[in-house]
Amino acid sequence: MGRKWRWGVILDAGSSGTRLHIYRWKDPEKALQSATPEDLRNLPKLVTDKDWTKKIRPGVSTFADKAEDVGPNHLQVLVDHALKVIPKDKVEDTPIFLMATAGMRLLPQAQQRALTSEICSYLRQNTRFSLPDCDLHIQVIKGETEGLYGWIASNYLLGGFDHPDKHQHGKGHHTYGFLDMGGASAQIAFAPNATEAEKHANDLKLLRLRTLDGYPAEYKVFTTTWLGFGVNQAREAYVKNLRERYAETEMELPDPCLPRGLRTTLGGDPLEKRESGMPTLIGTGQFDECLQLTYPLLGKDKPCEDSPCLLNGQHAPAIDFDVNHFIGVSEYWHTTHGVFGGKDDKAYDFASYQRRVKEFCGRDWDQIKAKTNSLKGDGIKVAQEACFKASWLLNVLHEGIGVPRIGLEDVPTANASKGALEHAKERGFLQPFQPVDKIDGIEVSWTLGKMVLYAAGQIPPATRDGRYPVGFGSNVEGTPYDFQFAGSSWKPIGNQTSEADDDWELNAEDILDKAKSKSTSFFFAFVFFLFLFLYFFRKRERRMRLYSRFSQVIRRQRKPGHSNPRKNGGGGGTRALSGLATKFFGGRRPSWGGAYERVMEEGEASRFELGEVESDDGHEYSDSSDGLSALSAKSASSRRFGLSSGLSTPQVVDHHHYHHGLASPTVTALDRSGLVVRTESRERLTLSPHLAMSGVGRRSRAGSPTRLKSPLMSPLQES
User: Fold this and answer.
1) Where does the record place the catalytic residues (predicted)?
2) 185 is in an annotated binding site
3) Is 146 a catalytic residue?
4) Is the dihedral of CA 149, 150, 151, 157 positive or negative?
5) Residue 187 known to bind ligand
6) Do both 636 and 567 map to the same domain?
């Protein structure tokens, strides 16, 4: 899969089962390398696949009394499926979350803690997934948190975050509301209009995401949950009220929310015939009466201490359906697009939906079964529960939340931009309510919202002051005391990044600045040190003086008696340093062991220093401050040898080289002819009375045994 991908695993532990979700996104560091200006303003791009999900039954909460079995008998199947999808070399870098919802919320706190502790221990001991913090990764989340995650997922898929200009609903509003209904609870999340947001600021959550350029994206969202308002819990409350309507001695209870002629137990199990001594529900198929009996379950008669309220006396800011357009998932989708059809509907229409429901629920049960022979197992159960779920959904939507009844009531004309109309007209997202299952092929699930938040937390922030962490909390400035962090950090992928990325671990708070300034900083540093070097060594005598001191340090590091370091197996580093120093300081390169070094050690180097001379720009072979000789100006091979060969200073070479009977190891074609050396030497010796009287030049040319043995000598020289 390559090194550029990040992975995430999240287990949705609901009341009826646990569902695995796997997501993948590009590592922020890699994404930045090819990001366009538009990409930089967007959130990370998450992808998933239908084969990356798997659901098993029953729910985790059923293991409350046998917590030790939840791992091997429940979770391992999902773990095995995840390992088939995620590359082996990515497992340790992949976070795993298990977040339990309403089913676990109904358990006592002691059983909740026992289950979450056992789950964390099992995953840590039996998998290699990243699980650094049990409290963060394995938890029972609040309904408000579930609703907020769903709100993130919905707006992420619809484009409300990345392209607000294309989703202007009016009054500066560009996000969508979120409705979710499961088996045990229901959630709502939306961003109120500006007036309501200011009026109810203390009721809102501050949500902070981070776009790819590292800058925060903040939203003020209201979210709440109604525990017990899921379809299964509502059904239990309905049956309880139905039981109380009749005398305790009554064994057959008419149920208008069941198809006509259907018999079930109070728990909903079908009965083929009458069972004596057992309370039985008998379907009457009266849908209007069903709506009347389910309405009281909304709790609209409960006192509202903080007006306004929606359901069960719980406060919520007023909803402006001019700009607040909701999408509904889970039961909102299944109940409107299940046995009642409507799969091809592009928008929810109350009148059309209610007509189909009445038609279905008024049929005899035998007739329904005959026309739905394909319904087996859960399909039969879905059909027998469809009427109650439809009545509950309609009451919650229109009587509880107040969604206008499209098709019956006058709905305000959507005040939206032309771009938003064209983008949403096929989906119906400009209507006050629209049930959805998938958007662009991706299931709308609150788990996606959680993973979007996690992926956004991996983006390095553009500011270094750390005031903008990713997460959510109370609607106050800065970082609230109850802020829930995304749980991710901006660090490279495991051990798969280069050494250049190691500084991410220290404080990579803005990779953009790092990428832009890295080459610039290196260039300025190089220029600075270059000028510093040239300033200190701009004069030749200073370079030579430093070279003298440098040579003494090198010589002291050698062991006594090792006149030939290479032969004795040591001193290679010293020789290398000496050669490097020669290149930098322009000094002589000795090739004869310790004789030259001894002279320098005895303090006689001043005799061999070159005096300052005025430069003659018109002389092709004049000595420069770099110490280049006339011969080195003509020959590339002897250019770096100008000083050490002595050709530019015949006084030094004739007195030192030939006094010891040694010849330079580098001899050019002109050297072999003997013309340049002899001619230049004689001319310059006449200018030096000291050397002329000593006869050093004649002795060095006539009596040097090395010259006779040199393999580079030509016959002309030997003659």
Assistant:
1) 146 (proton acceptor)
2) yes
3) yes
4) positive
5) yes
6) no
